[in-house]
Write a structure and sequence with these properties.
4% of the residues lie in helices and 52% in strands. With 294 residues, it is mainly beta.
């Protein structure tokens, strides 16, 4: 029974940088250029354009356990793990984003900030009422927006125990609920669409992509296979990972295409705008795949 519960936990587990976009539109067939092994339940990959490195969050166990076993790795663009355990002592780190020199990490019910250069702790922001913080993104004003998938794992597997929410942390670190609605379908990935001044939210529990602006209701954009995890916006293209198809979809002009296939449990993807790469953590495969999309 424990094995069955754990497999269900993997399916629901989730789990972004201000560098989530570029002006060009990618259209050619993606090509896998590297596979990096050696991670422990990798959940998210983030490209830091200033340091030109990839941060990888490692849950290293149960995605809801407060066990202190989680850590952040650093990988260089050549595909070499520069530091396996750059930041240690997290519980179940998932989505990440960078604001200035601070790396912000979603960790179950708190947001943790670290100096991206030195790994020194900067801040810990508890999110009162949070259940399963998943992805995080920075808005242009420096505010942080975080999805809460609102699930816990009991004897019978994953249970939806709260309302789906998006939290906001203001630059002064005041926490508020920016959106609360079960219509979000277990919100997972979130990114900021700079060209259209909106957020894109993808749910694990529904087969739709949502566009959302604060103080407005979300609107459905596209449909897909569901079990969505990570999301990136590149020009007018939306890239979304899905566990349902072990794939990454490309959405453009209202149409979705299964562009990258055969990646088991693709979690919170990242995007390297300098090299036109989609960065895919394989949650159950303990690896990161790099795909060139130009």
């Amino acid at each position: 029974m424990r094995t069955r519960v754990w497999l269900l936990a993997l399916l629901f587990a989730a789990c972004k940088s201000t560098d989530k976009q570029e002006t060009a539109t990618t259209s050619s067939t993606p090509t896998r250029t590297a596979t990096i092994e050696g991670f422990q339940t990798p959940e998210s990959v983030l490209w830091d354009s200033t340091l030109d490195v990839y941060f990888v969050s490692n849950i290293n166990g149960n995605p809801t356990a407060k066990d202190g076993d989680g850590f952040i790795s650093v990988v260089d663009p050549a595909g070499t793990i520069r530091d396996t355990v750059f930041i240690r002592g997290l519980n179940a780190p998932k989505g990440m984003t960078v604001v200035g020199d601070t790396l912000w990490v979603a960790d179950i019910d708190v947001i943790r900030g670290y100096n991206a250069r030195t790994e020194a702790p900067v801040a810990t922001v508890p999110i009162r009422g949070a259940v399963f913080l998943n992805d995080i993104v920075a808005a242009p004003d420096g505010s942080l927006y975080i999805t809460d998938t609102a699930i816990r794992f009991g004897a019978n597997g994953p249970e939806h125990v709260g309302r789906d929410r998006i939290f906001r942390i203001a630059p002064d670190r005041k926490v508020s609920v920016a959106l609360e609605s079960d219509s979000l379908g277990r919100p997972n990935g979130i990114t900021y669409d700079r060209a259209n001044d909106r957020f894109i939210v993808v749910p694990f529990g529904a087969g739709k992509l949502f566009a959302w602006k604060p103080n407005q209701p979300p609107t459905a954009l596209n449909e897909g296979p569901g079990q969505f995890d990570g999301v990136e916006v590149v020009g007018n293209v939306i890239w979304v990972s899905t566990w349902a198809d072990s794939a990454v979809y490309r959405y453009a002009d209202g149409q979705g295409t299964n562009a990258i296939k055969g990646v088991p449990s693709p979690a919170d993807i990242g995007y390297d705008a300098r090299r036109h790469r989609i960065l895919i953590p394989s949650f159950t495969g303990n690896r990161v795949e790099i795909w060139e999309v130009k």
